[in-house]
């Protein structure tokens, strides 16, 4: 679909998409399916952060780690998997998963859905206008008839710490793409990236120390027991987890990173990973040409239309709007936004009602997430803390997953916990959190329950198969029922 360009090529499309990660690709596919001419602009690899530097390579590193951990719990198998991982094979598989950082297959897919591609750096140049600087030094001037969708995502946030530039720190990109195992790795942060990369690199042979600022613990946005259980698992695996540890300064001397902590303590490492959040990729996007502030998150409504821009032509989809920084939610938003752009282009009113065709309601009501650690964490909907802050009356139901028959079959000494939040006023599921080996596969059923607002009396008729871990659903319902029944007078 590439077209020959002059030094200043002018083109007009119905829709211009900035960024070809999973979010941008889904927006482009949906608008093209709606019959709108669409071009996508990307300055790096088609497929974006998730495909090459985040979700895909990180899970390629983690899968053998977690599979071995599961196998070591099974009598008759643990002896066969007692040795170290084949690091070279794990890294080679990671490289295959990311297609050796080449995007030929993604380009082929884009051609198959009839979306044009321009490689280069795009900047807004006024309302509905985009200027693209190509790698060859040419300029392509684009005009959108209906919409410009910003799908540029986020980049790793690196704090301003004295000496940080001198140590060349790892971010999530280096952590997922490294070609060798560091002897000693310091991980700064306690969120998802931090715990997953600590899990992976420790199992691959690195001596890992986690430095977690404050006393909230790991995975602070989830139910507290999830972070506690993950911390226990990391410590048992050999990770040094230090809470309340802040980095004051850094230096690289004789090839190693010297870390000075705020309390005066010192630590040495071969590499240091900062997993301390994300920033919006809007700093060099030309936002000032339409009256917005470069570097800001783009606040959007339920259809992903930027609220601060007149005439409704600018959309911010995925991480860049700061609603939910998860790939699957970005793809969900993309389907919503693409359909809304198509409807509005046809002169139709967008359906922005709750759970309507053009409303990203799940972003606030039912966000699923899996943390690939040992133990695994899976959650959707509200946490207990979030329910309290929102003024929702919920009843908390906990159950030890080790009590279900499926856990006995799954592993010897299974450790896990489930929490069900019941909306006390409506009798529906408001949130679910699972912790334990293999619980990620329980998450879609929980998501359906939350999204569908299924009454608990109906859930009794959803029969879990025996013997599977999904029987925990029945045990949670039984626990809730027994609590509701009055005792003997």
TrEMBL record:
<feature type="domain" description="FAD/NAD(P)-binding">
    <location>
        <begin position="13"/>
        <end position="330"/>
    </location>
</feature>
<dbReference type="InterPro" id="IPR004099">
    <property type="entry name" value="Pyr_nucl-diS_OxRdtase_dimer"/>
</dbReference>
<feature type="domain" description="Pyridine nucleotide-disulphide oxidoreductase dimerisation">
    <location>
        <begin position="367"/>
        <end position="473"/>
    </location>
</feature>
<dbReference type="InterPro" id="IPR050151">
    <property type="entry name" value="Class-I_Pyr_Nuc-Dis_Oxidored"/>
</dbReference>
<dbReference type="InterPro" id="IPR036188">
    <property type="entry name" value="FAD/NAD-bd_sf"/>
</dbReference>
<protein>
    <submittedName>
        <fullName>Dihydrolipoyl dehydrogenase family protein</fullName>
        <ecNumber>1.-.-.-</ecNumber>
    </submittedName>
</protein>
<dbReference type="InterPro" id="IPR023753">
    <property type="entry name" value="FAD/NAD-binding_dom"/>
</dbReference>
<dbReference type="InterPro" id="IPR001100">
    <property type="entry name" value="Pyr_nuc-diS_OxRdtase"/>
</dbReference>
<dbReference type="Pfam" id="PF07992">
    <property type="entry name" value="Pyr_redox_2"/>
</dbReference>
<dbReference type="InterPro" id="IPR016156">
    <property type="entry name" value="FAD/NAD-linked_Rdtase_dimer_sf"/>
</dbReference>
<comment type="similarity">
    <text>Belongs to the class-I pyridine nucleotide-disulfide oxidoreductase family.</text>
</comment>
<keyword id="KW-0520">NAD</keyword>
<keyword id="KW-0285">Flavoprotein</keyword>
<keyword id="KW-0560">Oxidoreductase</keyword>
<dbReference type="GO" id="GO:0016491">
    <property type="term" value="F:oxidoreductase activity"/>
</dbReference>
<keyword id="KW-0274">FAD</keyword>
<dbReference type="Pfam" id="PF02852">
    <property type="entry name" value="Pyr_redox_dim"/>
</dbReference>
